[in-house]
From TrEMBL:
Name of the protein this chain belongs to: Glycosyltransferase
Keyword check for Glycosyltransferase: yes
Gene3D superfamilies membership: Glycogen Phosphorylase B (3.40.50.2000)
GO biological process: carbohydrate derivative biosynthetic process
The entry's keywords: Glycosyltransferase, Transferase
Organism domain of life: Bacteria
The organism's taxonomic lineage, starting at the top: Bacteria, Bacillati, Actinomycetota, Thermoleophilia, Solirubrobacterales
Residue stretches making up the Glycosyl transferase family domain: 198-348
Transferase recorded as keyword: yes
Membrane-spanning intervals of the chain: none
Record-annotated Glycosyltransferase subfamily 4-like N-terminal domain positions: 18-184
One protein family per Pfam: Glyco_transf_4
Length: 380
């Protein structure tokens, strides 16, 4: 039977093009294709806020990180977001609520749904569940703790993220680990070819992603060219451009806006290697899996949850974070060893085959339908 499912999150495409937002949209599309009624309640950072369009109401307010609201401002912020949620609950009357990244919105919305006796599932793809407590504008004025432990079934994209969330002091009762997957209808292997020195970085251009490390590595890779496919702040883009110029590699670094779908798949297939030089603890990381599905060798740092599927010397070459020399050495190995590239390609295809987007979406659907059928949130 079809269910009425309300998604609630900080951002929703096209406002936000990170892996978390794209995964949320993919699950929404899967559920709709399966006959479920899905509505989305989100904030708006880069596009106009407003009433519902295509089932997406962008009426939540968000607070920029680091900004401290007065008690009066925080109360108004909370009241607005609570009214926005109540409007959707009263109008749409969902069978189950699915929480996505709440970030700098209102964590108290989780308690609001719990108070109304609605079952809920929270999908946690980054540190929002524990970091959000610090970013939530109402936290300094909250008198009662949030009922996070019992308010939802919490689904994490990696064991590492679940364990680190618990280690941060968030008590959780019902949890699952469900990694996102690759759309294998889109990301398919291209033909094998001789090495041409075409390197690709795909994703957000932020300091945490280590793009500067890839640029520095080019100094030791005179025959290589690096394509940066992604968006970032004007400040960081200027820093990267300045770094490339100072190192004398600017002519070998090209940047293009973030792409998705068939355009991104084509970039993966055209690359000789995909670099994933992140320096932060990556909660999971879809880029290496998409590259593997495209038959392209991966060089990565294997931090955080990405270590759960990156196997050194089998499906990827693993280097330390903040190590341009090590990154350059790994690329040099790939350039000179066709058998190594073939081995990484073969094992990468096997790894990516075990991470299918449609299977992951189907499992999330099963959990949501089970919760809706039970008709009550898990209680302590």
């Amino acid at each position: 039977a079809s269910r009425r499912i309300l998604f609630v999150g900080h951002r929703f495409p096209p406002d936000g093009s990170g892996g978390y937002e794209l995964h949320c949209a993919a699950v929404r599309d899967h559920l709709r294709a399966r006959g479920h009624h899905v509505r989305v309640l989100a904030g708006a950072r880069e596009i106009p806020s407003g009433a519902s369009r295509d089932g997406v109401a962008r009426t939540l307010r968000w607070c920029p990180p680091g900004r401290r609201l007065t008690r009066s401002q925080a109360r108004d912020f909370e009241a607005h977001n609570r009214a926005a949620l109540d409007a959707q609950l009263d109008d749409f009357r969902p069978d189950v609520v699915c929480w996505w990244r709440l970030g700098e919105t209102s964590l108290s919305l989780i308690g609001r749904v719990h108070e109304r006796g609605l079952p809920a599932l929270g999908y946690v793809g980054d540190g929002w569940l524990h970091e959000g407590v610090e970013r939530d504008p109402w936290t300094p004025y909250r008198e009662q703790p949030l009922p996070l432990a019992s308010a939802a079934t919490w689904v994490f994209n990696s064991r590492w993220l679940r364990d680190s969330t618990r280690a941060a002091g968030v008590a959780l009762e019902t949890t699952r680990v469900l990694a996102p997957g690759v759309d294998h209808r889109l990301f398919r292997p291209g033909p094998t070819r001789d090495w041409r020195g075409r390197l690709l970085y795909a994703g957000r251009l932020t300091p945490a992603k280590g793009v500067d490390v890839a640029v520095r590595a080019l100094v030791a890779l005179p025959g290589a060219r690096l394509l940066l496919a992604g968006d970032g702040s004007l400040e960081h883009l200027a820093e990267i451009a300045s770094l490339a110029a100072s190192l004398g590699v600017a002519e070998r670094v090209t940047r293009r806006r973030a792409v998705s779908g068939v355009e991104l798949a084509a970039l993966y297939r055209d690359a000789d290697a995909v670099l994933f030089p992140v320096r932060w603890q990556e909660p999971f990381g879809l880029v290496p899996l998409e590259a593997m599905a495209s038959g392209t060798p991966v060089v990565a740092t294997a931090t955080g949850g990405s270590a759960e599927y990156l196997v050194p010397e089998a499906n990827a070459l693993v280097v330390a974070p903040d190590d341009p020399a090590g990154l350059a050495c790994a690329v040099t190995r790939l350039a000179g060893d066709p058998s190594l590239r073939a081995r990484l390609r073969r094992h990468g295809l096997e790894t990516s085959a075990g991470h299918d987007r449609h299977a992951a979406s189907a499992e999330l659907e099963r959990l949501l339908v089970e919760l809706a059928a039970a008709g009550a949130a898990p209680r302590s």
